[in-house]
C-alpha cells in the first residue's frame, strides 16, 4: 500500500475525477470543433480523407450564393413562433403557480408534448394537417367553416406557419416549466405587501414578477433565438425541405450528405455559429443591458 499524505491524496482524487470529463470534452467537443474549422478551409467531400486546402473559397461561395442565406426567411417563422410561445408559456406559468385545483395535472399535460419524439409528433400532425382526412379540416367543416379549410402543408404561404406551430406546441411545456420554477422562487411576502398597498394584479405582475424573473426571460429569449436559427428536425422530417420549408441547418445537411460538399457545409456551420454568437451579443447589449 502507498502511504500518501493527505495533500497528495487530495490532488490524486481531483486529478482522477477531472481526467475523464476533460478527456470526454476534448474528444467529443473540442476536437470535432477544431476539425470542423479545418474542414471549412478544404474541398473535402465527406468521403475518404482526400482533401485540398482552398482557403476562404468556401466562405466566399457562401456569401456570393443568395439561395444559401434566403433560407433564413424560413427561420424567421420559428423565431416569431418562439416569441409567441414564450409569452403564452409565461401566462400559463402564472396561472399554474397560483392556487388552482389540479394544477399539477395541468402541468403534466402541458409538459407532455416536450417529451414526445419529433418523429412521433410529425406523424401525429400529418394526420392533423392532411387536406382530405386531417382532423383540422374535418373540425372546421363540423363547425360550419368549410371555407377555412386549407392545404396546410401544400400551400407555400401557410406551410411554414403550420410547421412553426408544431414547434411552438412541442417546446411550450419546457418554457412553462422553466417559468414556473422562476415564479416559485419569488418570496410571497412581496405579493402580500403589494396587495396591502392596493396594487392590482397587473401592477404586481409588472413591478414584482417581471423584474424578479428578468434573468430567466433573458435566458428564454436566447433559447428562442438559437432555437429558431438552428431549427431542423420538425421541418426536415415533415417536408424534407420541400415547398420552401428548408432552414439553414437543413440546407447545411443537404450540402454535406446530398451534394457531397462537406467542406462547404463545414463553412456554413461555422458561419451559423458566428451568426448565433453575434445575435446573442446584440440581444444582451440592446435588450438586457446591465443596470437598465
Keyphrases for this structure?
292 residues, mainly alpha, MetI-like fold, 2 domains, 14 helices, globular, membrane, transmembrane helix
SSE inventory with pairings:
Layout: H1 6-39, H2 57-64, H3 66-69, H4 72-97, H5 103-115, H6 118-129, H7 135-142, H8 159-184, H9 188-196, H10 201-212, H11 214-229, H12 233-239, H13 248-258, H14 262-286
Helix pairs in contact: 2-14, 4-8, 4-11, 5-8, 6-12, 11-14, 13-14
Question: Brief overview, please?
Answer:
With 292 residues, this protein is mainly α. Helix content is 72%, strand content 0%. It is globular.
Structure description:
Residues 71-283 form the ABC transmembrane type-1 domain. It is a multi-pass membrane protein. One of its GO terms (biological process) is transmembrane transport. There is one protein chain. The chain has 292 residues and is mostly helical. It folds into two domains: 6-60; 72-246, MetI-like fold. The chain has 14 helices and no strands. The chain has helices at 6-39, 57-64, 66-69, 72-97, 103-115, 118-129, 135-142, 159-184, 188-196, 201-212, 214-229, 233-239, 248-258, 262-286. Helix 4 (72-97) packs parallel to helix 8 (159-184), helix 4 (72-97) runs antiparallel to helix 11 (214-229) and helix 11 (214-229) packs antiparallel against helix 14 (262-286).
Contiguous low-pLDDT stretches (5 residues minimum) are none
The radius of gyration computed from the alpha-carbon positions, rounded to a whole number of angstroms, is 25 Å
According to CATH, the fold-level topology of the largest domain is: MetI-like fold
Supply the number of structural domains.
2
Strand content: under 5%
Counting DSSP H or I runs of 4 or more residues, the number of helices is: 14
The CATH superfamily of the largest domain appears as MetI-like
Order of helices and strands: HHHHHHHHHHHHHH
Tell me, what's the shape?
globular
On the 0-100 scale, what is the average pLDDT? 88
Structural class: mainly alpha
Assign a percent range to the helix content. over 70%
How far apart are the termini? Answer: 61 Å
Q: Largest beta sheet, briefly?
A: none
The CATH class of the largest domain is identified as: Mainly Alpha
Counting DSSP E segments of at least 2 residues, the number of strands comes to 0
Which second-level CATH architecture of the largest domain applies? Orthogonal Bundle
Amino acid at each position: 500500500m502507498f502511504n500518501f499524505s493527505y495533500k497528495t491524496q487530495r490532488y490524486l482524487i481531483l486529478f482522477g475525477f477531472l481526467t475523464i470529463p476533460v478527456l470526454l470534452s476534448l474528444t467529443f467537443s473540442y476536437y470535432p470543433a477544431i476539425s470542423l474549422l479545418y474542414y471549412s478551409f478544404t474541398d473535402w467531400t465527406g468521403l475518404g480523407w482526400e482533401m485540398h486546402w482552398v482557403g476562404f473559397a468556401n466562405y466566399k461561395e457562401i456569401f456570393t450564393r443568395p439561395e444559401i442565406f434566403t433560407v433564413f426567411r424560413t427561420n424567421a417563422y420559428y423565431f416569431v413562433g418562439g416569441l409567441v410561445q414564450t409569452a403564452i408559456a409565461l401566462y400559463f406559468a402564472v396561472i399554474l403557480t397560483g392556487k388552482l385545483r389540479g394544477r399539477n395535472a395541468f402541468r403534466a399535460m402541458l409538459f407532455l408534448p416536450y417529451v414526445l419524439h419529433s418523429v412521433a409528433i410529425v406523424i401525429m400532425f400529418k394526420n392533423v394537417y392532411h387536406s382530405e382526412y386531417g382532423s383540422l379540416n374535418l373540425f372546421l367543416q363540423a363547425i360550419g367553416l368549410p371555407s377555412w379549410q386549407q392545404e396546410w402543408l401544400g400551400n407555400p404561404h401557410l406551410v411554414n406557419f403550420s410547421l412553426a406551430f408544431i414547434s411552438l406546441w412541442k417546446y411550450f411545456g419546457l418554457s412553462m416549466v422553466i417559468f414556473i420554477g422562476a415564479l416559485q422562487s419569488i418570496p410571497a411576502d412581496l405579493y402580500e405587501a403589494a396587495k396591502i398597498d392596493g396594487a392590482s394584479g397587473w401592477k404586481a405582475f409588472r413591478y414584482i414578477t417581471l423584474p424578479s424573473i428578468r434573468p430567466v426571460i433573458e435566458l428564454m429569449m436566447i433559447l428562442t433565438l438559437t432555437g429558431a436559427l438552428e431549427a431542423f428536425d420538425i421541418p426536415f422530417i415533415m417536408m424534407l425541405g420541400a415547398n420552401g420549408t428548408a432552414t439553414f441547418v437543413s440546407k447545411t445537411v443537404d450540402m454535406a450528405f446530398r451534394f457531397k460538399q462537406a467542406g462547404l457545409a463545414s463553412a456554413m456551420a461555422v458561419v451559423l455559429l458566428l451568426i448565433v454568437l453575434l445575435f446573442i451579443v446584440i440581444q444582451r447589449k440592446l435588450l438586457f443591458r446591465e443596470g437598465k
